[in-house]
Amino acid sequence: MRTGWRWILLGAFALAAGAAQAAGDVAAGKLKKSMCEGCHGLEGYRTAYPKVYSVPRLGGQHPDYIVKALEAYKSGARSHPSMKGIAASLTAQDMEDLAAYYSSGAAK
Ligand code: HEC
User: What pLDDT, on the 0 to 100 scale, is given for residue 53?
Assistant: First the structure.
């Protein structure tokens, strides 16, 4: 009986640790956003490559949407060339952190 409980507790700790790692961190996202703000967050900004695109606003966007969009660029499901290149360099944790930052209300 006693050893059984120990395994249940271990499992609970492992789950808690996993959840803490997956959750986005606003402060970490703020440090990582320097690679995004050249395009996102400038009022009315358009990229000129490969043609002229208006850049969507990320501030206030739902975090799950941001993560899903970044995963889609990385996998190729979404095919915008600039975003593909950027998303390819992001880890899952980077995506969560950036999503936390942009959805936090701190960003434009
Ligand atoms: C070179 C300019 C540029 C940079 C740098 C850039 N983006 Fe983008 N981003 C764009 C453009 C243009 C689009 C719209 C592309 C499209 O039509 O699919 C876009 C789209 C997105 C979308 C989808 C938005 C939506 O409403 O569907 C997300 C999320 C996103 N970018 C996040 C980021 C993050 C996070 C970074 C930094 C790691 C970043 N971008 C850096 C130009 C850029």
Answer: 81
